[in-house]
Amino acid sequence: MDWHTVGGGAAEIGLSASFSEWIPGPSMAAALLIWRMATLYLGLIVGAAAIAWLSSVPRQAAAKDSLAD
Asked: What is the pLDDT of residues 15-36, one digit of tens each?
């Protein structure tokens, strides 16, 4: 067994077990999808946007400071 696959889906099982009293069965898949989008993919998108923005910021001030030393 590959160690990368151990624990895969455990968060979804735990979430569905803890919310099973409040969320009906047919809606659980949608709730899990929304939860996964909010916790994983939103952070990836925000991080990618931050990296793209930071890579477009000119580094002139830092370059001037390092040349002065």
From this structure: 888 888 888 888 988 988 888 8
CA quadruple 47, 48, 49, 54: dihedral sign: positive
* C-alpha to C-alpha distance for 35 and 27, rounded to whole angstroms: 12
Structure tokens at 16: 């569905």
pLDDT band at 61 (very low <50, low <70, confident <90, very high): low
Measured between alpha carbons, how far is 41 from 33 in angstroms, rounded to an integer?
10
Can you tell me which residue has the tokens 């909010």? 38
The one-letter amino acid code at 23 reads I
> 19 φ, ψ to 5°?
-100, 5
